[in-house]
Amino acid sequence: MTTLITPYQVPEWIQGTMLSSSDTQGWHGVIQRSYQLEAWEVAAPAIDHYAIMLLRSKTPAALQRRCTGGWQRNTFSPGDISLLSIAQPAHWRWQESLDVSHIYLSRELLLNVSREVTGRNVSEVRLHDLLAIRDPVLTSIALAITSEAQSPAAGGAMYAEALATQMAVHLLRNYSSLEFQADRSSLKLDGARMRKLHAYIEAHLESSLSIANLADQVNMGVWAFSRAFKEATGCPPHLYIMNERVKRAQTLLGSVALPLKEIALQCGFSDQAHMSRLLKAKLGVTPGQLQRSALKPVAAD
């Protein structure tokens, strides 16, 4: 089995100076490192991330690379991007100094995004073996990630990870091949999963439930979960949660003499007014009318 190196080990295989990095910024799924590289030739081991390399030098350079076939030779111009798939050894050769920004995306990120995009159980993502491409979208995203690593600001991790997701979607659309698992059961909500979800919703109905919370319970991405949930129940998750809150409110209003404000909180409504609006819209009556009707004394015969 091929031993993979991490992006943090790449400097052991090149000659140059690291100019910037995201190492201390708490990013997840994406790593940025900028280098000033000396002319070099190296048979580099495979990396455990997908590599997107942006040339920031002011002048073009002759670049050569051999992966699985023969040598590729191309002019690497300022703003060009080089792609290298995960777990792909490569023999590199360049004869000029290079100013480059390396963006590394994790396997987990690419798999998760590919499953969200396709709605299928993707088992493997491979990037096309492209030595030098001109793609303004990729270049702009790579520059934005690089800029954030060099000059971090408030919300930096969230911003960089959002950019990485955009980059992943663009790569998947234009520069990738996917392998799918035949079994799609993991992307469907069967009876056992629906029971688990219903129990979770019931136990946390008074909380601020999000679609991401629910998706996490069944190990699915948000987009794939939303599609699967609607397929299983006939309605989107947010509508299902709202209906469950209305049902609980009906039960409480008909059985306990609690203040309407307290019932609203126990059902997960933002406030009493929110509950009143929804019950009026769904049932045609107000919470007060429901409670008075259910709890008024029954006349003796």
Which key phrases capture this entry?
Arc Repressor Mutant, subunit A; Jelly Rolls; transcription regulation; transcription; elongated; four-stranded antiparallel sheet; five-stranded antiparallel sheet; alpha+beta; 10 helices; 2 domains; 22% strand; 301 residues
Question: How would you describe the overall organization of this protein?
Answer:
Keywords: Activator, DNA-binding, Transcription, Transcription regulation. This is HTH araC/xylS-type domain-containing protein. Regulatory protein of the TOL plasmid xyl operons. XylS activates the xylXYZLTEGFJQKIH operon required for the degradation of toluene, m-xylene and p-xylene. A hairpin with an 8-residue loop joins strand 1 (16-21) and strand 2 (30-37). The mean pLDDT is 91. The relative contact order is 0.10. Helix 2 (136-150) packs antiparallel against helix 3. The chain has 301 residues and is an alpha+beta fold. It contains 10 helices and 11 strands. Helix content is 41%, strand content 22%. The chain has 2 domains: 7-180, Jelly Rolls (Sandwich); 188-295, Arc Repressor Mutant, subunit A. It has helices at 107-118, 136-150, 156-174, 191-203, 211-217, 222-233, 237-253, 260-266, 272-283, 287-295; strands spanning 16-21, 30-37, 40-44, 49-55, 61-66, 72-76, 81-84, 90-94, 98-106, 122-127, 176-180.
